[in-house]
Protein 1
Amino acid sequence: MSCRMAGTALLRHLGPRLFTAEPVSGLAGRGLVPAAARILPARMSSTAAEAAKEPAATEQHGGSTNKPKPAAPDGQDSKKGIVSYWGIEPRKLAKEDGTEWRWFCFRPWDTYRADTSIDMKKHHEPRALPDKLAYLLVRSLIVPKQLFFQRRHASHALLLETVAAVPGMVGGMLLHLRSLRRFEHSGGWIRALLEEAENERMHLMTFLEVAQPRWWERALVLAAQGVYFNAYFVAYLASPKFAHRFVGYLEEEAVHSYTEYLKDLEAGLIENTPAPAIAIDYWRLPADARLKDVVTVVRADEAHHRDVNHFASDIHYQGMKLKDTPAPLGYH
Ligand SMILES: [Fe+2]
Ligand SMILES: [Fe+2]
């Protein structure tokens, strides 16, 4: 088999797994879904699509009583039957204004108002060798980033968030395993780091409503995630103080990038479109919020991640342990 034939066969096999937003199974796997659903997978996962997938919810927040119901007879409404049998049907909620709660990926108690008064200019001066190395590494990424994205801020944000959501998950996972292994408390750091990862992923879901990744950007993310996850995993095992410092500098750079995004929005170089619905609900923004408001709260989140990670690194530098220093919980 020639290389070309082998490549075509591999792409045919892996393509749907790597580049679709939904699992490929059932009708989709047998090629019975409309062709458009496979050609435009990302569009199928947009806010509008999410709303269509989620059932109408009419009960007030906290007022639902979902008692298990008898299972449906065989072959009749089997999906509903399975949910009822196990009694794990998600609670149906409503917003404060009485309208339906549209999101299952986050719930009303996950929402918050970002602290936009946070200092955007804070910087940790690298002095020790690991700090200088971490700083150099982040700085070395800036030139290719500028060449690649120039002022395509939404595309840059989309790809940046796919990377930014990795360290919190890796750090949280490793601290979780350490807690189990050593029979010890975590000081809240497992939750704090997992919250950070989830917050970054919500940034990604938000910018997905503003820009769509091209196929080669999806491929780039795939490769970058494979490398970055493993590299960060090893770095965190070897030196948590270096790993947190690296993320601290990465977040400093994220703050800078979103500041540039805001400047272009203010200058009218980018259209200040209405804020995506998911952002309005997640950050409790006013109904008439615009993209500029969204970028402002995302930037505030990045500044908070910057401070948390520099703080975590400082704890290690001072010979203390994360588990003995209460984590900054409750920001998200
Ligand atoms: Fe982010
Ligand atoms: Fe961040």
Protein 2
Amino acid sequence: MGHLLTSQSLQGRADRRPGLQLFALVLSLAASTGHSNAVAGEPPSPASGQEESAASPSGPCSETPAVEYPAEQLTRNQLKLLPAASEGPVPDVIGLMIPGRLYRESVQPYPGANAPAGPLDSLGFWILFVGDHGTQGGIVQAEWSLCSGKQTLETRQLGPESLKAREHPLIAEQNPELWSASHHLLLPGDLQADGVVYKVRWGGQEPASLTFHLPVERYEQKTALRLPLDEPARVEAGHLAVEHHRGEGSQWFALDLAGVDATTLAAVRTSDGLDNENFHGWGRNVVAPGSGTVVAARDGVPDNPRAGKGLDPKEHPELDDPVAGVAGNHVVIDHGNDEFSFLGHLQQGSIAVAVGDSVTQGQLVGLLGNSGNSSGPHLHYHLMACGQPFRCNGLPVRFEGVEIPYEGTFESYAPVRGTVLVPR
Ligand SMILES: [Zn+2]
């Protein structure tokens, strides 16, 4: 359920290349069909071109210098890759990475889960090439290496079949101008991995390659955050692999939270209807997950009357703030430490705070709604590094005071799609 900020986010690219507008639409479509590869780590690739090597100080991590990415390249949250090295006649392509900065996200089990021992981190990223990647026989191989400084911890080569499996199906079908590969690694939490070297090879008569060395960080959340809802909620969409939030970097770690019946913790709807009133979450309190200052508070965006198609911003030019057409009524809280909470799709007329207000953790900011590009009543939440979506990186987030009511071994241990979160 729920697609928030997809088409807007890619506008910056559309400015440069007309064909990219289609991509924006493609990603919006992807919201409704998104499937996830879950936190399953990088599965072994099919036989073609696969190769692994043990830790070595002489692999790609030592051969390819890390490139510092200037801050201005992170605007619109789309990092234009600067190749660290190239070979051969490189085609006219634009390389992009989503998100603009690679963060390891802790998937440490929440209380109540019966999960494997030891901390784990997930690391997800998309590599996209726009333009003439079809020349010279196309991209025939990619290779990632996980680095600890100049030491290469692991290298994995991906042949055509493996790459095809990582391509977004709708992108492949509808926009041949784009080549994409999504990667989702699961790392032991104590693994000292601080970089990824990514190499793409073109085939044909004059083989060529581009290599990038991307820094990887483990983000330490600064703000103590609670669940922004008072009652149990189910994650209707998270941020695994190709889920729709992963179409844009500020939402890289976003969660769509739908209210569930407080007794069964199962039903999202009170009856079979699809009107907003048929949803348990509709009108529930949305509260500040952490203290701070309100830097955006938008009201007046009409509620979509029922679950289904969200509001199309193009049909509502009167919504002068383009974010509002997508995010609906929303509140952004500056936590005072370069962390900002974004709460979207709130009910029209329910916004209880104004720009400049100080809020305390747990204070009411609005009611759960269905405004903007929302496919049903739910709260979209994400933490980000600036006060405006699309303009900066999303940040990994972990709530305090939350339990996941599962008991089975290996059942959900992190807030992924389908997980119920219960405030304690
Ligand atoms: Zn969302």
